Amino acid sequence: MMEVSSHALHQERVKGIEYCIAGFTNLTQDHLDYHETMDNYLAAKQLILKQLTGPMIVNIDDPCGNKWLDIYDNCKSLGKNANNYNIVSYEDSHNGTLINFKVDGVDYKVETNLRSTFNVYNYLTALAFCNSLGYTVEEIINITESIYPPKGRCEQIKVKDGEAVVDYAHTPDAVEKIVNAFTENKKGRVITIVGCGGDRDPKKRPIMGRIAAEKSDYVVFTSDNPRTEDPQAIMNDILAGVTTSNYEVELDRREAIKKALDMINKDDVVLILGKGHEDYQIIGHDKIHLDDAEEVRKYIEEHK
């Protein structure tokens, strides 16, 4: 099992590999510094079809979903109106998500330890892969309670009377999805820490800034991996899309995390986005140790 990037397909880095199953979850703005247009980006992803021998699992709720169905005969649909893997309903809770779904018209129900809408799609996609390989839906449901998010993917840490959530979201779509996931049933405020990487697609920066400020109660904009770009120049790009005043800027990421955690009142959630599992920050050409989850745990120890 492997994740195959659009770059890998376009540059033929996986040439010669035959895939028995593949999946398409979504297409959102990213990597346009390389692909230049969304059409080129989609075309690069679709190159996998030349190396595919079996079914293509397609999220038809994505606007580009039908573009796969049009060019490949062996597609299995997934989504709210899908024939094969149909999402009937789902209900988010503090600890996970209850999903009602159908597979080829048969009703099923499962409770996962994963939160948010995007993880409903991720879970059903993984289920579709396993099911297509011959495992029954019942077998998959029975081991679901053992599945937990990996480090840095919606990683929840209790802080005071609220919580911090460390996540890898670093595109406009991913930021919007995770902020929405925690605002849908919120009891307190959603405070977001986010920045943008240097030497990467600059077009997404103002979009991410706008989404974070509009969707969150408060935002602390900070540095991600600035690499060889000036962190303040990156920040200026981000703020160009912000039209609200519910934010502050703290370029030092450690300080940004502390500031946001200081703000936590009862039931507040601090979303620390962009770096997820990474335990470093790239400044210039140097890798400096920095782990978002580790910083949260240090804060907890210091404020006992």
Briefly summarize what is shown:
This protein is an alpha/beta fold.
Helical segment tally?
Answer: 11
The span between the termini is 43 Å
* Mean pLDDT across all amino acids: 94
Low-pLDDT regions = none
**Structure class:** alpha/beta
Q: Total strand count, please?
A: 14
Shape assignment: globular
Tell me the series of helices and strands, N- to C-terminal. Answer: HEHHEHEEEEHHEEHEHEHEHEEEH
Strand order of the largest sheet: 1-2-3-4-5-6
How would a textbook summarize the main sheet? 6 strands, mixed
Give the strand content: 15-25%
Radius of gyration, in angstroms, nearest whole number = 20 Å
Helix content: 25-40%
Structure description:
- The chain is of the alpha/beta class and 304 residues long.
- 33% of the residues lie in helices and 23% in strands.
- It has eleven helices and 14 strands.
- The protein has a six-stranded mixed β-sheet with strand order 1-2-3-4-5-6. A six-stranded mixed β-sheet has the order 7-8-12-9-10-11, sandwiched between helices. It has a two-stranded antiparallel sheet with strand order 13-14.
- Helix 7 runs parallel beside helix 8 (204-215), helix 8 (204-215) crosses helix 9 and helix 10 (253-262) crosses helix 11.
- The longest helix has 16 residues, at 117-132.
- The protein is globular and about 50 Å long.
- 38% of the residues are buried.
